[in-house]
Amino acid sequence: MKNLGNSCYMNAALQALSNCPPLTQFFLECGGLVRTDKKPALCKSYQKLVSEVWHKRRPSYVVPTSLSHGIKLVNPMFRGYAQQDTQEFLRCLMDQLHEELKEPAVAAVATLTEARDSDSSDTDEKREGDRSPSEDEFLSCDSSSDRGEGDGQGLHGSGSSQGETELLIADEAGRAISEKERMKDRKFSWGQQRTNSEQVDEDADVDTAMAALDNRPPETQPPSPRSTSPCRTPEPDNDAPIRGSARPCSPGHLQEGHAKLSSSPARASPVRIGPPYVLKKAQVLSSGGRRRKEQRYRSVISDIFDGSVLSLVQCLTCDRVSTTVETFQDLSLPIPGKEDLAKLHIYQNVPAKPGACGDSYAPQGWLAFIVEYIRRFVVSCTPSWFWGPVVTLEDCLAAFFAADELKGDNMYSCERCKKLRNGVKYCKVLRLPEILCIHLKRFRHEVMYSFKISSHVSFPLEGLDLRPFLAKECMSQITTYDLLSVICHHGTAGSGHYIAYCQNVINGQWYEFDDQYVTEVHETVVQNAEAYVLFYRKSSEEAVRERQQVVSLAAMREPSLLRFYVSREWLNKFNTFAEPGPITNHTFLCSHGGIPPNKYHYIDDLVVILPQNVWEHLYNRFGGGPAVNHLYVCSVCQVEIEALAKRRRVEIDTFIKLNKAFQAEESPSVIYCISMQWFREWEAFVKGKDNEPPGPIDNSRIVQVRGGGHLQLRQGADYGQISEETWVYLSSLYGGGPETAIRQSVAPPPDPGSLHGEQKIEAETRAV
To answer: Which residues, including other chains, have CB under 8 Å from residue 66's CB and lie 6 or more apart?
Structure first.
């Protein structure tokens, strides 16, 4: 990819993502689902870019102009030619892709999740209401003193045998399974919600609380936890992170990072939904405090990259336990220093104190760039025992998931004690993502200067095992990962350059991507790289054998009386996921079992035809469904769509008529106030921008209660003025309140005759 001017942060990230098989295969094989009416249609730009990169007749390099322009429209931070943070670019890109590709989660899945949660709940539970999505997105599981996060780009690749099998399935299944699918050139592309966290506070004793989370081997038990702060909502940093750039580079600032669990920038976006799971002592809460039911969404981004963590905080005074389920897209791991590393090895997983990584931090100056390369050369020529123990990725994970002691300045605010108390916090993985993104905290920002942790972190190319960090409630069966890609930052905290190492899915070879220069490298070069962002993919030999068996069944071409339609999106999961989950045909079916009228004209892009023997094998192996032998337009949905369109037309026409009459009044006796927040939701509904009607009218935000229960309009409130007739009409449809009116009490003018008589009497009195 051509460098557009300090855009190496973008090029390295895009190369890493373009080598992600689950995502790229989605953009190739499921083009019918890459549809959006949201600007700037970044998913279309990304699909075009990756298609060019992986086309058989691709040019020597491609220019990502369209995608660069789109990301700058989404986030002004990336405008201009200043150096930027590749990790923030990744988050912004995936978040926007999710927003454009998201679809409402299947109602059956959501109902199943709620039912399971309800069955596993205890009678003595104390439930709290959901927080807003914007608050949930900032949930943290980190220490407040762990501040620095650096730029990073992620690379990704896959093993040769697994990659060849996937391509074989894609080609053979395309010929033998689908009768409507045309042969295309092999292309790859990929795309991406922000974060849902739900909390339950329960009364439990110490043993029950520890048993709920503790699932690691005895040698990893921490005898003395470190000091950190409880899960909380960190404030966003106003300074944009700038950690690396393409050649040439200029110094920049670093962003403060409070969170172990990385999430997208705050915004009021809907919540993603993941696979259902059962929590015995930690329940996902139903939305009780909201008047309008919160819609859950999913996308290919959330399916691939979303995982969840179970965090438990216990008060050491009253033994009250607070449990939180947090969704993450990447894990931001600390790099322990020598002293902390010794504690991890000697005392079995005593967590490293944030901000105290020994001599790993070194101040960066104008000469540091040259010194860094000299240091790396010396290190490479010196035996490893001279520098002490090597930091491994497992050490970073152990430091991340170690127990935290909450004391001193980081005491826990206990809801039962109603005061600050000493506490202990534990954190375990509840659900593993298909692609695990790991971000190493190599950068630390102070007021006057910045640091970069240059310690080499050893990471495995294959067989990263996360079993020691799983909660007992974890539903994931596959816990080992293989490296796909790694993003490296060369330079200092003030300036540098990004490159990416990716494994090609076709031949299994590793390549170095340095803007428009691509070089084949040996895997030892990758292992010695100074990793900043790593992409790992679930590995499963059983999944590879399963795909080979399906290819064999499809090649048999057995005659069958019935043909079955299966979701192309799920078939892509089967070809690329280690755990594809049950068959989900709801991507092209409505709740009544037919085809939604708005999807029927491109239904061929959404389904693949399977012979009976292949369908029976997949159904017996994965379950799900429903089975589909005939495609038809749903008449019920058609009637509902027509009724909804009529309702919208009637409501908006009536409002326009009443509002026009209101505007014609010169001096209305009463003016009603309505919350603009609710009005904007109603307007989006009647204009067809939102399929869900708004809830009851909520004027609570624009009024305040005075003495005696009197309601008064809040100063500076966001409200609109409507007539009494308009208020009665909307209130009759949606209900709600409270009724807020501004009444004009104008005193009638005095009678001129009586005024003249009073003046005459007054004059006569004065004369007397």
So the answer is: 45, 48, 49
In terms of domains, do 583 and 627 share one? yes
486 with 550, same domain: the answer is no
Choose one of 92, 113, 134: the last residue of a domain: 113
What is the rounded CA–CA span in Å between residue 607 and residue 570? 9
Q: How far is CA 75 from CA 40, 244, 351, 360, in A?
A: 11, 18, 36, 33
- Catalytic pick among 8, 315, 427, 488: 8
Rounded distance, CA 92 to CA 123, Å? 42
552 and 471: one domain? no
- Contacts of 658-667 with CB under 8 Å at 24 or more apart are 658/722, 658/723, 658/725, 658/726, 658/729, 659/722, 659/723, 659/726, 661/723, 661/725, 662/722, 662/723, 662/725, 662/726, 665/723, 667/744
Is position 497 annotated as part of the catalytic site? Answer: yes
pLDDT digits (tens, 9 = 90+) for 350-372: 333 333 333 333 344 546 556 65
Which DSSP helix (H) or strand (E) runs through 759? Answer: helix 752-767
- Starting at the edge strand found earlier in the chain, the sheet holding 296-298 runs 103-104, 296-298, 271-272
Q: What is the pLDDT of residue 307?
A: 95
Dihedral angle computed from the Cα positions of residues 489, 490, 492 and 495, in that order, rounded to the nearest 10 degrees: -80
Give the separation between CA 327 and CA 333, rounded to whole angstroms: 16
Count of domains observed in the chain: 4
Q: Provide the CB-side half-sphere exposure for 87 (13 A, CA).
A: 34
Where is 211: in which H helix or E strand?
helix 206-213
- Asked whether 451 and 359 are in contact (CB, 8 A), the reply is no
Examine residue 55 and state whether it is found in any structural domain, yes or no: yes
- Which residues make beta-bridge pairs with 597? none
Q: What pLDDT digit, counting tens, does each position of 584-619 carry?
A: 998 899 989 999 998 999 999 999 999 999 999 999
Instruction: Give a yes or no: residue 145 inside a domain.
Output: no
414 is catalytic: no
Helix (H) and strand (E) counts in the chain = 22, 39
Task: Examine the fold and report which residue of 80, 113, 146 is the final residue of a domain before the chain moves on.
Answer: 113
Clarify whether residues 404 and 529 are in a common domain: yes
Which among 632, 441, 627, 398 has a CA at the least distance from the CA of 531? Answer: 441
Tell me, yes or no, whether 557 and 698 share the same domain: no
Q: Provide the residue range defining the domain that includes 602.
A: 542-633
Q: What is the pTM of this model?
A: 0.70
Does a structural domain hold residue 608?
yes
- Number of residues written out for the chain: 768
- Each residue's pLDDT tens digit, 334-345: 998 877 776 766
Q: Which of 489, 497, 502, 634 is catalytic?
A: 497
Same domain, 532 and 547: no
Is the domain of 559 the same as that of 697?
no
Q: Which of 282-296, 383-397, 592-606 has the highest mean pLDDT?
A: 592-606
Dig out the tokens for 738 from the structure: 């409270």
Look at residue 653 and tell me whether its pLDDT is greater than 60: yes
pLDDT of residue 723: 92
Averaged pLDDT score across all residues of the chain: 74
